[in-house]
Structure to design on (402 residues):
């Protein structure tokens, strides 16, 4: 398996994964945290750890609370010996949630979780006969681990890595080969802002979910003559569903059963569900698992309305605040927008919106009200506007919601 690495000075190095793995040293340990100077080094370390039966524990070191909890649990770095395993014997990998909506939770996966989901992904992408996979996302989250680290080996593809990608680079890095780009909504949105048309009919883009609106997906596929797929899931559930282009409905992955409870929250029964969760202690995860996502069902497929804390109810209608954020960003050409929900139960009023807009281009209240009226003529929104310097994001480019 060939690993292509281009550093930030534009220097290119081609290495074989097997040769890189031989050079790595992993101490005798049941589980270990992993750190590396470059993405290829981390790529090789993780593959070698998995081959040796070492359970990788992956997290963003910017979140100090995770670092402390992992240390307290007794998990060592990959270069240090460990006297005993502290995770369940069935543990294959431990990932942490992004922490965008609270304290990060650890999700422990067993071998069947990971290998089963890889089987499902392989069944989707193998018929495309990709030659190259370009990975823009970190390996520390389950999406990057599965789609960017494990899947290319299953597909027999070479992998191209950079420390930092610029949107315009994704236009040429395929070098004419049949390519899968494993990326995120932040890159899709950035490429849309380039305002150039390119023919990327040999490239397929796979994005994690950030609720790209249908208009953005349609414009992206037209602007680049390409195909955009989105995969929906979470650290706890693993992959749940996939959709192609502007299709409104998500198709569950092989083996995944979807239902909803009385609050219209998604209930997932899946072979990819985590076996254990690591919060204050390590506990068994309940099955099936109720998520915070609000859905509408149609046969086995579903439409995703947003997370429970991202849904505003106005005039009896549920509306996603992510959809409203995208509407302001695209419709008024602003910087990043973050919307919070305010409600006053005692006054029995509809929920109101706390709209924060970053950057110098600040629309007026009249601008926003006119935009809302054009798209939701029957709804009268209550909101407040605030100009902020920037909107906090995590390592996947997702907005942090407190």
């Amino acid at each position: 398996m060939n690993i292509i690495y281009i550093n930030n000075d534009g220097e290119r190095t081609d290495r074989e994964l097997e040769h890189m793995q031989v050079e790595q040293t992993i101490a005798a340990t049941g589980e270990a945290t992993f750190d590396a100077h470059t993405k290829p080094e981390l790529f090789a370390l993780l593959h070698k750890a998995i081959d040796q039966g070492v359970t990788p524990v992956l997290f963003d070191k910017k979140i100090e609370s995770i670092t402390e909890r992992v240390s307290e649990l007794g998990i060592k770095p990959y270069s240090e010996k460990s006297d005993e395993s502290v995770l369940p014997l069935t543990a294959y990998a431990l990932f942490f949630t992004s922490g965008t909506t609270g304290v990060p939770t650890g999700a422990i996966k067993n071998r069947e979780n990971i290998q089963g989901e890889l089987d499902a992904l392989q069944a989707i992408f193998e018929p495309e006969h990709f030659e190259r996979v370009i990975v823009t996302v970190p390996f520390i989250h389950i999406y990057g681990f599965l789609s960017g680290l494990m899947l290319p080996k299953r597909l027999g593809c070479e992998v191209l890595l950079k420390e930092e990608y610029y949107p315009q680079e994704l236009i040429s890095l395929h070098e004419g080969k049949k390519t899968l780009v494993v990326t995120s909504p932040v890159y899709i949105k950035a490429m849309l802002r380039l305002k150039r048309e390119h023919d990327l009919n040999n490239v397929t883009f796979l994005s994690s979910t950030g609720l790209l609106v249908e208009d953005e997906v349609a414009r992206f596929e037209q602007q680049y003559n390409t195909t955009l797929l989105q995969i929906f899931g979470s650290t706890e559930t693993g992959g749940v569903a996939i959709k192609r282009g502007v299709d409104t409905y998500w198709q569950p992955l092989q083996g995944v059963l979807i239902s909803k409870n009385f609050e219209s929250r998604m209930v997932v029964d899946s072979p990819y569900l985590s076996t254990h969760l690591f919060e204050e202690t390590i506990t068994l995860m309940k099955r099936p698992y109720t998520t915070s996502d609000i859905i509408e069902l149609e046969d086995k497929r579903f439409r995703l309305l947003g997370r429970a804390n991202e849904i505003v109810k106005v005039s009896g209608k549920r509306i996603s605040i992510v959809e409203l954020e995208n509407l302001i960003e695209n419709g008024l050409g602003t910087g990043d927008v973050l919307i919070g929900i305010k409600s006053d139960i005692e006054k029995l009023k509809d929920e109101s919106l706390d709209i924060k807009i970053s950057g110098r281009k600040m629309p007026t209240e009249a601008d926003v009200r006119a935009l809302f009226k054009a798209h939701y003529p029957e709804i009268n929104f209550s909101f407040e506007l605030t100009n902020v310097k920037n909107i906090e994001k995590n390592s996947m480019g997702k907005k942090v919601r407190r």
Residues 258 and 299 are 10 Å apart (CA to CA). The longest strand covers residues 289-298. The mean pLDDT is 90.
